[in-house]
Amino acid sequence: MINLIFRVLRCLNKSSIYKIFYLQLVTILIALLSVLSAILIAPFIILLSGESLSINNPFFQKVFNLVAVFNNDDLFLHISIIFVSFYVLSILFTLVFTYLNLKWIQDINVFFKNNLYLFYMNKNWLYHSNISSKGIISKIESDTNRLGNSVILPFLNLASNFLISLIIISAIFLVDFNVALISIVTFSLFYLFFYYFFKKKLRKAGDTVTKVYPYYLKSMFEGFSSIKDVILFDKKSYFTNFFSQNVNSLKNSQITQSYLPQIPRSLIEIIFFTLLIGFTFVLVKFYDFKFAEIGAMMGFYGICALKVIPALQKIFNSFASINSNISAFINIENDLINAKKISLKKEINTSSQKIKFQKIIKLNDITFTYPNNKKAGVFNVNMTIPCGSKIGIVGKTGSGKSTLLDLILGFIAADKGEIKVDEVIINNNNIKYWQKNLSYVPQNFFIYEGTIKSNIGFGLDESLIENSKIHNSLLLAELNEFIDNENLEVGENGKKLSGGQKQRVGIARALYKNSEVLILDEATSALDTITERNILRNLENNKNVKTTIIVSHRFETLKMCDKIYFIQNGKVEELKNFEELISKYK
């Protein structure tokens, strides 16, 4: 457990760690006020019964001697006021502690979510191509919440309630050593038994939640994203069954996590009530205690129990919660540590920096293979792309075209060779400055829920989007139907748009950026020939786009290119002319 605490602290920032110590100071104050109110109940009950302040207990007799400094006539009033004041203050400080605890945990959740989101956003394309987005979402949403609410918060509750229990039990030891010893041994053995009895079941339930939650997200995401196919192929039962299976797994695990820790509380109350009645019987039957003395002692033990039993239950719940949800922390521990390092780095504003491209792009002996498939990729590629040229890239499906574009775009880094822009070697240190020159339109284009305008001005606040540039981008992309209607809502993933309109919105987005290099990867495949021809003519006349790289299976599209590269099995060959391209495909 100690090792786990240090591992969790390693993921937090200094401000959060300091707050832990501040909260423990409040806890100590609450415990002291609780003890004082418990001690003062004894003289309060004796005075209430009309007896003199005398009791057969050395500790309480010392307390009575201390309160005797008050005038006898006003003694009951003073004791009542002090007793009520301490009790009320302990409750008020508990409320303050609870609020600070919950607020801090939410701050921690936000800290983790922001750091993880930044961490995953900084990952390269290769990382994202090999991992499920549902897994990332599950980590950011589910695992961070479970870590904050079901691991770190229980840590705090465990520490604070341990301090409260320790201070109150210490007071009981001062009053009666035997009673304190019997109580602490009984309760400790009781909770240890239940903890080890439930430990495996709780851990299994937590592991199930960690494992199933990504599939729960997957069942929702895929079912609604493919709703047309679901309806057409009549597969509603498949997706609803898959969803129901995951929901039921989560339900059963969460019931186990919530119910099992509650069992000891009910049983411990039975034990305490039985011991209290038995203790009272012994005092009356064998020690001839008076009612006032018994009432004073029972009042003291009653208030102590009122504070200690809930504290012990919270300690047990904390251990159970940590054990049940530790898999959530393990699942994101390394990511949190690395995310914290990234968040501590000061980002330098370099938005105006850009690698100048005035002459030529060279790919010198470039080789790249995928880690999980060494036969896939590109091999010993040599290409030259002059500034102001139109370059065509053609090849059959799976030949390596997308990999080649990913290398030029900087989404992946070459295993061997180099890419040079005007004699500047592109590497991890300057890739983002090179990408400022690039616009990219893939065949499968993402449209997010919003307006035509917000999708074209991608990632910009709508107040910062220039209407004149939107208008010009719409014209160049042959989206005349949206001129003066750019605030039209497109729906989730562009549901309200046709396939051709989606592609043209992608082209308009690329043109809005005013990049010098435009890369079209089957970007006009959903367009009719006339619309495609008009867009390509518009691009030829556009002075902002100096260089165009076109991947297409349409030979007519490639006729406008100055150079054509043919790629097959990861090998790239420059073709002499258009006729050679036709012969290659024959």
Highest CATH level, the class of the largest domain: Mainly Alpha
CATH architecture descriptor name of the largest domain: Up-down Bundle
Can you give the mean pLDDT? 83
State the domain count: 2
Physical arrangement of strands within the biggest beta sheet: 6-7-8-3-9-10
Write the H/E string, N to C. Answer: HHHHHHHHHHHEEEHEEHEHHHEHEHEEH
Strand pairing plus helix content: what structural class? Answer: alpha/beta
How much of the residues is beta strand, in percent? 5-15%
Main beta-sheet strand count, sense and barrel state: 6 strands, mixed
- Please name the CATH topology of the largest domain: ABC transporter transmembrane region fold
Give the distance, in angstroms, between the N- and C-terminal Cα atoms: 69 Å
Shape: elongated
User: Helix count?
Assistant: 19
CATH superfamily of the largest domain, please? ABC transporter type 1, transmembrane domain
Count of β-strands? 10
Radius of gyration: 36 Å
Low-pLDDT runs: none
> What is the helix fraction of residues, given as a range?
55-70%
